[in-house]
């Protein structure tokens, strides 16, 4: 009997209202779900779960202890941190979908990362950024932060650039971007997205098989 497949959390790294991040996260999911990628024969296919930082609405970091010194969720001061810890512990790897604001990533994702340490440590991560020019600066900065909590970001990153000013304005106002996998905006990026996802799966599958 095959063991449970890897659990992958897709983190929506924007808490703005309105926002485009949920649409873009869904586009990523719909692009990679149909992909026929090899997995070890003793594992079921991976599962993808959305983690929306707007819904979590974590306050600014307010724990009394340094997260790297905490080894059980019961040691955290606050119920919201304990819940966040248990949520992140569930996953084997993550896909971070982030906009770029003023040459950086949103504060909400840095805050969410800073709450924890061991829950992130050792887990593989894929970064998808988006913006007027693809969000490359946010992508690179977020990769450094993930390495700081001892995560293992994959080498391949994805940067989605809005092809027109009109689409950028629509995104900033929360309009429908019509991101239909295979035919809409960024459809040409599908192959690159799948290649990055394949690299993520190879990293996490190796971890699961070695357990």
TrEMBL record:
Span of the signal peptide:
none
In what residue span(s) does the NADPH-dependent FMN reductase-like domain sit? 6-157
InterPro entries given in the database record: Flavoprotein-like_sf, FMN_Rdtase-like_dom, NAD(P)H-dep_reductase
Which domain of life does the protein's organism represent? Answer: Eukaryota
Q: Name one GO cellular component term.
A: cytosol
The UniProt GO MF terms for this protein read: FMN binding; oxidoreductase activity
Coiled coil spans: none
Q: Which Pfam families match?
A: FMN_red
Kindly provide the name given to this protein in its UniProt entry: NADPH-dependent FMN reductase-like domain-containing protein
Q: Which organism is it from?
A: Pseudogymnoascus verrucosus
Taxonomy, top ranks, is: Eukaryota, Fungi, Dikarya, Ascomycota, Pezizomycotina
